[in-house]
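About this split. The held-out portion is used to measure sequence recovery: a designer receives only the structure tokens and must propose an amino acid at every position. Recovery is the fraction of positions where the proposal matches the reference. Here is one held-out target exactly as it appears in the evaluation file.
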């Protein structure tokens, strides 16, 4: 049991310890932000894209990706879409703005005719601004 009997000095002394509680709070907040943001930064539709050596163009803030998978099914961004409801799904995704660019991705194994049929469906739906997506030839993985 310790008792201090000397009451002569009332000045507060300096504390030579670092208060790490605010540092830990900041680190935990950053960890939570990265845990939430990391899955949003990736595209969940797996497709084997061909490579291209064309000059890249900047993407818009909210691009609209239409994916033609190897089994010829369609995905609008990450949602699977039936061919019959493609125009309606695009209308809801673009809020009826048919001047918005649609980024078309297709697997390497998709026949060229199927890709052209999809582009014809886009044209008949009024979507004339179509961009084809591919991998850069420099970063493409050789198979």
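Reference sequence for scoring:
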């Amino acid at each position: 049991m310790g008792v201090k009997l000397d009451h002569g000095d009332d000045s507060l002394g300096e504390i030579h310890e670092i208060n790490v509680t605010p540092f830990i709070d900041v680190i935990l907040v950053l960890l939570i932000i990265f845990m939430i943001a990391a899955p949003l930064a990736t595209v969940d539709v797996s497709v084997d894209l061909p490579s291209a050596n064309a000059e890249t163009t900047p993407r818009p803030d909210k691009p609209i990706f239409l994916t033609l998978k190897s089994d010829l099914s369609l995905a609008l961004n990450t949602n699977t879409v039936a061919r019959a409801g493609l125009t309606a799904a695009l209308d809801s995704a673009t809020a009826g703005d048919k001047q918005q660019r649609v980024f078309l991705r297709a697997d390497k194994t998709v026949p060229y005719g199927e890709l052209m049929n999809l582009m014809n469906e886009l044209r008949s739906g009024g979507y004339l601004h179509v961009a084809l997506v591919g991998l850069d030839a420099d970063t493409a993985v050789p198979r």
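Annotator remark: The helical segments are 21-40, 86-94, 112-124.
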